Amino acid sequence: MAFRLPESPSGEAAKALGAYYTDQTIAGFLVRWAIRTPNDSVLDPSFGGGVFLQAAVQRLEQLGGNPRNQIFGVEIDPQAHARTRLVLEHSGIRPSNLILGDFFDLLPGQIPSLTAVVGNPPFIRYQRFTGEGRARAMARASSEGLALSMLSSSWAPFLVHSVAMLCGGGRLGMVIPMELGHAAYARPLLAYLARSFDQIAFLTFRKKLFPSLSQDTLLLLAEGKGGKTAHFHLLDLEKPSDLNNLDPAFERQSIEAQALTSGRQRIIEYFLPPKARALYRELSHSQQTQRLGELADVGIGYVTGNNSFFHLSPWQVAKWGISSRYLKPAVRRARGLSGLRFTQSDWEGGLLRGDSGYLLHITGKNDLPLELQAYLAYGESEGTHQAHKCRVRDPWYAVPYVYQPDAFLTYMSGEYPRLVANEAHVVAPNSLHILRLRSTSPLGAAGLACLWQTSLTRLSAEIEGHALGGGMLKVEPREAEKVVLAAPNLPLDALDALLAELDSLLRIGRAEAAQDLADDIILIQGLGLTRAEQRLLRSAANVLKERRSAR
Asked: Fewest CB within a 10 Å sphere: which of 97, 379, 459, 540?
């Protein structure tokens, strides 16, 4: 009778367990890399469909080892454990070595000493990663001297506990979210890995490992447990199948470990040609540039809990007779932004498309007009007051943190993030980031929008943001504040004239011409860059944009 490994779960089951099974090519490579002698012992701490363990059986048999006694696995899902165990028993693994339970309940010493840990840790975002399981996971990380942020997803403590299971000199080969290279909560984890191993390599791919997921991934290869200062390396491959022909002594480019663990650099910078990377680093530390956070505070817009109820069109305002006292003009989505300035005319035009409207903004609960009380009663009849964000407010209809910003920034972008001055003095929900100028900023919001148009800033946004599925670039507020802008030696009237031209070009869809003009005035005339340097920045920004777009 033939036995086949089970397929990966899907939908809510996959999200709840963080279970996305790895294909045989990737699993086979990690196992070949990690298991090097017939005496090696290996653990998959979340074996799921068993692909890593089956590959380990084949590897140890080739080397002359004993798979029955040298392979171990843990799986928390009873159904996956039962299905996979049946197959793996017939592959020669001792049944008692396939443990049903929570990996965080397994302590070093409860199974024989391990020379290798391989696998694909469950990926559960912190919002779902709650309860006793999270508490145990964080306690295990803490016992290793690592205090992880509460924003950590499940894979982070999983990785730490995997390291703890290894003997001295051991190896760790795992599929890890790309967040390891850019998330703030992952920096202490990178530093922990650097303290724990002699060599660490990141294998990245220009084609995604998991095409159906928005989460990007890489392969982490860490060896020589017990080292005090690891050397970091990167290898960027075209596609997973390239692993089949990869020489064990593959060439890798060095990464500055301290710069990566401190957050001064990101892995994505190493996807750039060396000359472009060097120029960007020089400019990012130059007195001729500044970070967006030096000029403005970046935050998210307000959260209503139910946009369709709290955002009203003019005809809804008229229908319910709601006083302007309880309304604030709002732009609802990035689609409503076109040029460098969002004007009253833009807001009025957006009313017809539904991109603009009014926010229902009530700051108290007493003496509300009868018309407004009727609208709120309608909302309660529709269950609006039971939505999570509404349920935790008192009163439920008082939307907090409503600010009139100086500018808006798109945080999910296909082409590039857009920064637009708020000349209409409207508010915005969390579909947009909001910018409030610092008192020390020498520029107005429109001037800031001008500086945002250069190739330098587009490259910086690609580096500081992170790619999602469908080729989208996401820029979180703290990431946006790190984006580099030029500080050109230009008179303000020249910047005003440039603003008018850029705004006109963008409104007729000539974004590339606007970028050309901004580069000429700001980078070449203002900063004194050569044409070759300007082209290098433009090309580098396109390299990263095309990389994420292709994914």
From this structure: 379
Mean pLDDT of the chain: 89
- φ, ψ of residue 310 in degrees (nearest 5): -85, -15
Q: Are 167 and 508 in contact (CB under 8 A)?
A: no
CB-based contact 174:162 (threshold 8 Å): yes
* CA 541 – CA 201 distance, rounded (Å): 25
Please tell me the distance from the alpha carbon of residue 30 to that of residue 219, in angstroms, as a whole number. 8
Burial of 236 per CB tally in 10 Å (0-12, 13-18, 19+): middle
Q: Is 274 helix (H, G, I), strand (E, B) or coil?
A: helix
At residue 324, φ and ψ (nearest 5 deg) are: -65, -15
What pLDDT does residue 213 have?
Answer: 62
Over pLDDT 90: what percentage of the chain?
Answer: 66
pTM of structure? 0.87
Q: Give the whole-angstrom CA distance, residue 308 versus residue 141.
A: 42
Name which of 38, 380, 22, 390 is nearest 210 in CA terms: 22
Contact between residue 55 and residue 31 where contact means Cβ atoms under 8 Å apart: yes
CA dist 51 and 57 (Å) reads 10
For 148, the 3-state DSSP assignment is coil
In order, the DSSP letters of 423-482 are: TT--B-BTTSEEEEE-TT-SS-HHHHHHHTTSHHHHHHHHHHSEE-GGG-EE--HHHHTT
Runs of H (alpha helix) within 237-288: 257-262, 274-284
